[in-house]
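Quick one: structure for this chain?
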Amino acid sequence: MKVQLLRPDLRQIYRPLQVHTQWPPSRRAWNRSYATTSISAAELEFGQPVYETHPHILKPGEITPGITAQEYADRRAKLAHSLPDGAVAVLPSAEVKYRSGAVFYPFRQESNFLYLTGFSEPQSLAVIRKTGPSLGDYTFHLFCRPKDALAEQWSGPWSGLRAAEDVFNADEAGDINALHTLLPPLLRSASRIYTDAIPSSSSSSSSSSSSPSSSLSSIFSSLPSKAPTAPLSPLVNAHRAIKSPAEIGAMRHAGRVSGRAFTSAMRRPWASEPELHAYLAHAFARDGLSGEAYVPVVAGGPRGRMIHYTHNTALLRDGETVLVDAGGEYGWYITDITRVWPVGGRFSAAQRDLYAAVLRVQRMAVGLCTERNGLSLDEIHRATEAALQDELERLGFEFGRGMRMFPGGGEAMGILFPHHVGHYIGLDVHDVPGYPRSTPLRAGHCVTIEPGVYVPDDDRFPKHFRGLAVRIEDSVCVDKDAPLVLTPEAVKEVEDIEALR
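Got it. Here's what it folds into:
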């Protein structure tokens, strides 16, 4: 049985690391070990922060902020245990995306790859092979780039093969450039291959010819006996959907910092959407988050009715409200918050009435997020829609026969509340794609609860509410008897919002 241990102190592992005194070394010489001197791990450069080089970001034993090497090993063990006997899981990394020419976007690792390895570099491939019936019976192979001083001088450091084993606990590391030679022996005896990089003739033409994904098609087709393939995501989703205490802790930290940034922003007058957007992005990074979790919505006045308005370029006007949907990221775990507040500091009567109605419904829906209730997100959505309609009727909205049907056949509530009440969150803003919202919520599910009302400028709705938009969203962790709101530091009571000015 395979025994997984926490990563030991790299300062001890790397102390005998050999470096060269000859300068400049050849590429081949740089990638080989010649004994000349020793060096501490704290003096080395890796492709991402490690505790020895970034103790201000990571604690001992952590691979990524908040998540230990042991937890990553446990995730791989659980996935392997869920595979059929003799099956293999193959996960290619994400690749660098280019904005134009040689200008690239910030790299973001593929989420399932990240969840199982913690390794955040492109040009990588992870292979997890089930080797027996027990929980720890598996092997983990990590193919990545070997160290290359000349290339790293241009692109910045990456971790290399030795770190793949010593830091990221791979049983074996291999050169990604030798994938055609090293990968087939791991696949020849597989009973089934699970991968989301389903090989096809089109996949290789649409991606870089040097990427792991583009290599898989020819490797799979060259196997003498082709094992059946199956998508990997459904298996990983079952594990990713239920968050561990460490994951919840990372999301709670992201929610705490993001919520305080929201509350701080509400204290100040803002002249424009880009000014407010820039303040929030700065506040997330200033207080220890890695940045924005997604492109935010900063929508003044009637622009708040556009659900995913992200231009964030207009002026803000006194007398209107501003709707902000934003959140920060910590260790690749996100938070998702929406708040609405008056640009001038005080709600008008109509703004206050509509906001209070949505807030009452939001509190009710958050309270349903318990395992004891046994409701799914779909069921919470239906309860939310019914409660919103009751609240709007009390405000003078009509939902009789004449109002219910609109041109095109849409119902009035479908126009006023056109989106779902929530979605799963975690490593992604819309986490575990394909995981159904009809699943009864269990302790460890993390979701958003975000009822909203968006009133068109239409004479079939009360005049004083036309053009208003209210959405109130919190990130919530489901527990057995009571929900854990991950974002309470973002104030949302009318009195609290107005008191900030």
